[in-house]
Structure formats: structure tokens, C-alpha cells
Design a protein that fits this description.
Blueprint lengths: L1 H22 L4 H8 L5 E3 L5 E3 L4 H5 L8 H4 L24 H8 L2 H7 L8 H5 L19 H6 L3 H9 L1 H7 L6 H5 L13 H12 L2 H7 L5 H7 L1 H7 L8 H5 L19 H6 L24 H42 L3 E3 L3 H25 L4 H4 L4 H28 L1 H10 L3 H16 L11 H25 L1 H4 L6 H31 L9 H4 L1 E3 H7 L1 H15 L2
Antiparallel strand pairs: 1-2, 3-4
């Protein structure tokens, strides 16, 4: 038996042998047998020579100290260099996937994809074998070395930056670097019309900073006043022609306005402004670009501030007086129209009107404060004070809604009027038939459905309110008491509750605007409003038209009462 295994084991060893050999990585010592030679070079096209020397001491001091050569140069085998196969470019994405993905979307990566082999690669910025942490002064991407590193390809731009206010500040210990403006791996280009708004946003990152403005003694309103100006508003609106920061201050050689070489020096303003405004005069360029009406003391700024204050007063006075006049006229005409209808029919008693008012008030407060909490930068959010104030108004309104819902359950369960209301609102098959009937009425002009006390429009709305109150109440309480909820349920339940709460709010608001507002406000038969929510009454002729079955029942009951 042993004699038969010997040939089999030999075959297995012969098959596995190459695989086992390939699995053994090339040791760094093997590579350094040749690459530790300072005189090792490679001839390139055009008569150039490339050094192949690797400083073992610096390699051990780099971020790749624990990385074997073969982990990066995976294409090389034990036969190298005898196989005459040169090492292929290293693919850094094997270890640095996120950074490589960002680099692929940069101006450098896109250029490489288009076949431009002169575009910068990872090694051009970070180095080859001596890659140091970015906070190390020896790193090629350290703030003190970036100018030199980027200058290898962008010499003119690097020289301009060195002479600029950014370069001068950086030489003193702190200032904007190439990466602060152009990003790190996803290098962006800021030239051309398409980058107008992007350029302003880039400059804003530093010039809106109180720390940086205070540190360098710069005005703190430059970003604010730019975005309030025509240039800023146009750029924000998507214009590719409006001037941005670089249009006036320059791209790389940005100098103080007191410097005679600066684009915004008084002696150059006509030329700078004239690029976009041909024929610009000295008077034209004499205006303030970054003018803050609240703080400026220049003649034009002071006059503008007074004009603004006068107009604000006139606007408020005009709106108040005209609004008061029209409100009184509207109410007078509405009252006259209601009197012209003659007999009225009671649709809502006092208790039901009170419940409706509580529901209406809490719903409006919930909608306004809820969206203000979701979108805190909107104008209506600022009208309601701080986030804490908005949050507590929202919670109190939610408690009113829930309390009203609990009372309504009691009302429909234990009062005569409530039980009758529930019976009349209960869905029936007749409602489905009424939907089909009204579909034919609205599209083909056939006779419309005849409703009793409530038709399918009121029933749909009532049960939607029930559903919405339960959903919003449960999710709202879960969000409010999230710590207590997570004692029993996983954290993701709160996240789902937030999602449901938000989208249910959108659904409810749209339903109110599209469905409820039409039936009680925009329907021509009730315009400008169905006032039943105020006094509980509707016109008798409208009642007979919209709810004929109920009107007939009421008339029949009255007839019975009048019989002797």
C-alpha cells in the first residue's frame, strides 16, 4: 500500500509545488540586494535616467514600514529581474480604496482616464518609498511643503501663491494651502464659467470664519455682503457669467488692495471691473462692493440705510391699513351673503365645534413647528424663536391633539350625539357605489350621488384624521421619550418612527390643502368658506343640494311632529 502512495504523493507535490512557491512573498531583503545600490539606474526615453535606489532606512521610517515590497509590487515574481519584466505602476486602491475613488473624480484622475500620462498620480504628490504622515514636516503634503510639491507641475501658480497674501501668511505659520481651495484627493478646478458659485463657496470656508478673520485682522462681513450683492445672488441662482471672488481678487496671486499690483488696487479697478463692464468709469468703480448697510458710514451707505428704514415703515403701514380695510369689507360682504341665504340648518353642535377647533389649532401648530424643526434655516422657523421654543410648542400641540383624540373616543362611545355621529360616519358599501356614481357625474355629466348626513368625502377625511392622529401620536411619543423606548426596543425603531412622523406629516398637510380646503373653502358653492366650524350652521338650500337624503329625513321628521 505504501509503495502505491509514493507515485501519487509525487504527482501531488509536483502540482502543488509551484502554487506553494508563488504563495511565498518576496522578502524585502531580496529586493534590497539590488535596490540598495545608489548607482542603480534605468535608462528612459529621451536620454533620461531614473534612479532605482531605495533608501532602506527611510523606507523603515515611512508609513509603509510594515508593508512588504511585494504587497505593492504584486506583479513581480521571484524571477525578477532576470525575466526582464519591468515593475508595473502600483495600484494604491488595494489599500486606499476611498481615497483612490475620490482621486478618480478629480481633475488629475479624469485627465489620466482621457489618456494624459503627464497628469499627477498618487506617487507624484505623496512620494514613492518615503511616504510620511501628512503632519510630519518631512511629508511632501505637509502645509510647509505643498507649494513645492504642487509646484513640480504648477510652477507659475506656485510662484503666484508664494507672493500672495495666502503664501505670506503661510510662511508665518498659518494660511490657506492648495488643498484648502482645491480639495485633497478630489482635486477640483476653479477656473471657467461653470465654477462661479463653487469659487465663492470655496472662499467662504475661510473668510466666513470668525477665528480666521480675527486672527488676520480681516473684516467679518465679506462673505455675507458678497452673497447679498448682485454678483452673489446671481451666482447662487446658477449664473455662470456673474463675477465671483476670483474675478476681482485673482486666482493665485491674491494681494491686498494697498498693493500696487493688486487687481483691486484703486489704480487697477477700472481695468478689473471693465472685464465685465466695458466702459466702466472712475465714478462707477468708486462704489463699495462689500457694503454693509447696517455698519457702513459712507455717504451712499448712510443714504441707503435711511431709504430702507423709510420704506420698511411705509410697507408696514400700507399693508396694515389696506389689509384692515379689505378684511372689514370681506367680512361685511360675507355676512350679507349669509343673510341672503335665508333659512339655516345646524350641522355641528357646540361640542363638535369645540373639538374641531382644538383639532384645527393643534394641527396648524404641529405643521408649522414640525417643519420649522425639520428646516431650521427657513424664514418661518426664525419667526418662532429658538429651537427649544419650537420644540416645546410642537410637543404641547401634540399633547392637545392626543388629548382631543382621547376625548373624542369618549364622546363617540358614551354620548348620544357621539354615537349617532359614529354611525353616520361608518363606512358602508353605499359609499363605494357613490364614488362610482360621482365618477360618472364628474366625467360624463350624469346625475351625481345623493348623500345622507355624510358622504364619502367627509368619511374619507374623518377616518384619515383618526389614522393620522394614531400614527403621529405613537411616533411622536416614541421620538420624545426615545431613551425610555430603547429600554425595550432597538434604536432603529426610533429612526423608523422619525421617518414615519415626517412623511405622515407631509401626507396630512397635502391632504388638508387638496381635499379639505377644497370642500370647505374653494368649492364655488361654499366660497369663501363654510362657516359651520364657527356657528355650526349652513344654508338650507346648500344642505338640500349637497345632502338631499338627510334634508328629506329632517323634513319628514318635522312633518310627523306637526301632525295632530
Amino acid at each position: 500500500m505504501k509503495h502505491h502512495l509514493i507515485p501519487l504523493l509525487s504527482v501531488v507535490a509536483w502540482l502543488v509545488g509551484p502554487l506553494g512557491a508563488a504563495a511565498v512573498p518576496i522578502a524585502n531583503d531580496k529586493c534590497l540586494e539590488c535596490h540598495d545600490d545608489k548607482d542603480l539606474t534605468k535608462d528612459l526615453a529621451g536620454g533620461k535616467t531614473l534612479s532605482m535606489y531605495v533608501d532602506a532606512a527611510k523606507l523603515k521610517d515611512s508609513v509603509h514600514a510594515k508593508t512588504q515590497c511585494a504587497e505593492c509590487h504584486k506583479d513581480l515574481t521571484m524571477e525578477h529581474p532576470d525575466d526582464a519584466k519591468a515593475a508595473k505602476p502600483v495600484d494604491c486602491a488595494g489599500c486606499h480604496e476611498r481615497q483612490s475613488k475620490s482621486f478618480g473624480a478629480s481633475v488629475h484622475g479624469i485627465a489620466l482616464d482621457k489618456g494624459n500620462d503627464t497628469a499627477a498620480t498618487c506617487k507624484d504628490c505623496h512620494g514613492k518609498h518615503t511616504v510620511y504622515p501628512r503632519n510630519s514636516p518631512r511629508s511632501t503634503i505637509h502645509v510647509t511643503n505643498l507649494e513645492k510639491t504642487c509646484g513640480e507641475c504648477h510652477a507659475e501658480e506656485a510662484a503666484d501663491v508664494a507672493a500672495s497674501v495666502h503664501g505670506q501668511s503661510l510662511s508665518k505659520g498659518e494660511g490657506a494651502t492648495c488643498m484648502d481651495c482645491h480639495s485633497e484627493h478630489k482635486i477640483i478646478g476653479l477656473k471657467g464659467p461653470a465654477a462661479s458659485f463653487q469659487t465663492a463657496e470655496t472662499c467662504s470656508k475661510c473668510h466666513a470664519s470668525e477665528r480666521i478673520n480675527s486672527r488676520f485682522g480681516m473684516p467679518d462681513d465679506r462673505v455675507k455682503t458678497f452673497f447679498e450683492s448682485y454678483h452673489g445672488l446671481a451666482a447662487t441662482g446658477g449664473s455662470t457669467l456673474a463675477a465671483n471672488c476670483a474675478s476681482c481678487h485673482g486666482f493665485h496671486k491674491i494681494l491686498r488692495s494697498s498693493n500696487p499690483d493688486s487687481m483691486i488696487h484703486p489704480g487697477h479697478l477700472m481695468q478689473t471691473c471693465g472685464k465685465c463692464h466695458p466702459g466702466a468709469t472712475q465714478s462707477f468703480v468708486g462704489g463699495k462692493i462689500h457694503a454693509d448697510e447696517a455698519k457702513g458710514n459712507e455717504t451712499g451707505v448712510v443714504v441707503s440705510r435711511w431709504v430702507r428704514n423709510i420704506y420698511v415703515f411705509l410697507i408696514v403701514l400700507t399693508v396694515v391699513l389696506l389689509g384692515l380695510h379689505n378684511a372689514l369689507a370681506w367680512w361685511r360682504k360675507v355676512a350679507e351673503r349669509r343673510r341672503a341665504h335665508g333659512a339655516m340648518v345646524v350641522r355641528m353642535d357646540r361640542n363638535q365645534r369645540f373639538q374641531h377647533f382644538a383639532l384645527m389649532a393643534s394641527f396648524i401648530l404641529l405643521a408649522v413647528t414640525g417643519f420649522a424643526l425639520k428646516f431650521p434655516n427657513t424664514w418661518f422657523a426664525h419667526l418662532m424663536g429658538t429651537e427649544e421654543i419650537r420644540r416645546w410648542i410642537h410637543r404641547i400641540a401634540g399633547l392637545i391633539l392626543i388629548t382631543g383624540g382621547i376625548y373624542h373616543i369618549y364622546y363617540v362611545a358614551f354620548t348620544v350625539a357621539g354615537r349617532k355621529l359614529l354611525r353616520d360616519l361608518w363606512p358602508r358599501w353605499q359609499d363605494v357605489r357613490d364614488v362610482a356614481t360621482n365618477a360618472c357625474h364628474l366625467t360624463l355629466g350624469m346625475p351625481k350621488a345623493r348623500f345622507g348626513r355624510f358622504g364619502y368625502p367627509e368619511k374619507l377625511e374623518y377616518w384619515a384624521v383618526v389614522w393620522g392622529t394614531v400614527v403621529m401620536g405613537v411616533t411622536g411619543l416614541a421620538i420624545w421619550f426615545k431613551i425610555d423606548v430603547t429600554h425595550w426596543l432597538p434604536r432603529w425603531v426610533i429612526d423608523v418612527a422619525v421617518t414615519i412622523h415626517y412623511y405622515e406629516a407631509i401626507l396630512a398637510c397635502l391632504a388638508i390643502v387638496i381635499w379639505h380646503f377644497y370642500h370647505v373653502m374653494f368649492d364655488p358653492d361654499v366660497y369663501p368658506m363654510n362657516f359651520a366650524w364657527l356657528d355650526g350652521k349652513v344654508a338650507k338650500d346648500w344642505h338640500e343640494e349637497e345632502h338631499p337624503l338627510e334634508a328629506e329625513n329632517v323634513a319628514a321628521e318635522l312633518g310627523k311632529e306637526r301632525q295632530p
